[in-house]
């Protein structure tokens, strides 16, 4: 959804956003994304992933092995075993190996990274607030419509603190 607010987020380094190739593949090749985000194809050219060579380096490969070994643990939040896909494990390794932050709605992946590597999740609205604070984007009616669409699409609720921060920055309302 952030792509609709700042399509250049993955091609302009000032946004500090990256996406692994596996995630790009999921976005454009899986039925789930095709149905939920029919607009995604308009942004195909802007979704430039990390170079595959970066994910073939020693640090990533070592961390990926650690992720594989620890992914069989128990999720302390649910009491169940972690259920991470191959792509989830690649994302976890990427986040940890390169000291990235994570923004995902996948509870199991969030719990895994928090529990095993002390990595916190960043909400999409927190990212938008950062872009607004750094004047990378200007808020307008079109971007407001995207936020309203988030709600219609059933996207995860955003933290209250970030909603208030958004209101403070824009002087506008966050869709209730």
Explain briefly what this protein structure is.
With 176 residues, this protein is an all-alpha fold. It has helices at residues 2-5, 21-29, 31-36, 58-70, 86-97, 107-117, 124-133, 141-152, 160-170.
Describe this structure in words.
By secondary structure, this protein is mostly helical. The protein folds into 2 domains: 2-117, no CATH class; 124-170, no CATH class. It has 9 helices and no strands. Helix 5 (86-97) packs across helix 6 and helix 7 (124-133) runs parallel beside helix 9. The mean pLDDT is 92.
How far the N terminus sits from the C terminus, by CA atoms, comes to 18 Å
* Overall shape: globular
Helix content: 40-55%
Average the pLDDT over all residues and give the rounded result: 92
Q: The biggest beta sheet, please? A: none
Number of helices: 9
SSE order, one letter for each helix or strand: HHHHHHHHH
Beta-strand content: under 5%
- Give me the Rg, rounded: 17 Å
User: How many structural domains are formed by the residues?
Assistant: 2
Estimated structural class: mainly alpha
């Amino acid at each position: 959804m952030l792509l609709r607010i700042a399509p250049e987020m993955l091609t302009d380094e000032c946004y500090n956003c990256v996406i692994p190739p596996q995630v790009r593949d999921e976005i454009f090749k899986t039925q789930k994304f095709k149905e939920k985000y029919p607009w995604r194809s308009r942004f195909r050219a802007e979704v430039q992933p990390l170079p595959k060579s970066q994910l073939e380096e020693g640090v990533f490969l070592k961390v990926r092995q650690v992720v594989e070994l620890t992914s069989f643990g128990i999720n302390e939040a649910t009491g169940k075993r972690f259920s991470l896909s191959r792509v989830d494990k690649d994302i976890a390794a990427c986040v940890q190996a390169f000291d990235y932050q994570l923004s995902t709605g996948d509870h199991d992946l969030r719990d895994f990274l928090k529990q095993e590597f002390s990595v916190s999740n960043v909400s999409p609205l927190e990212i938008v607030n950062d872009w607004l604070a750094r004047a990378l984007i200007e808020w307008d009616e079109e971007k407001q419509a995207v936020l309203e669409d988030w709600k219609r699409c059933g996207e995860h609720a955003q933290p209250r603190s970030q909603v208030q921060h958004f209101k403070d920055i824009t002087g506008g309302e966050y869709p209730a």
